Please model this.
Amino acid sequence: IFEVDLDMTVTGCEASFTSIIEVVPNPTIGFNLNRSEGCPPLTVSFLDSSYAETTINYLWHFGNGNTSTLPNPQHRYEVPGMYDVQLDITTENGCASNLSMTLEDAVFVYPVPQPGFEIEPNTVNILDPEIQVSTTAQGADNVYYLFGDDGTSQEWDFSYLLSEAGLIPVVQTVTNDFGCVATAEGEVAVE
Model:
């Protein structure tokens, strides 16, 4: 804040004028993320740290075609990948300004393993209830099987003896080194 004094003399007439002038800083742009990586669906909160003496208009670009005009938005990423995030701000009054900031590879959505398995044969006799299980999952580092007869396995390819008659459900759960999980279901008929 400055006080400005102006004294004038024109053709013998004197006049004085005093005014207070406030100099405001130029707008600045900035933002942070609360969580920038994880398994999908990944919800990320964006925290604006921009500054302006006047109203700020926001336009966020989340790197996947979606946008927001909120000051502190949340966005949900469904598809694995790396995403650049851009914030554009505009101010219209006072120190009018258009500013833009981009964080490259700001969000990393981890890949998800693709579950899958095959059972041969799909129908067995209770007198010969042995099946062969083959894991066809991709991008997985660990596998876990739960059979409807309460049996389990952590093997990738194995033989299994079913202990009950009927339609026996089989659930496969796979994980990767990122901790992302996926499941697949199947069944075996025991006659």
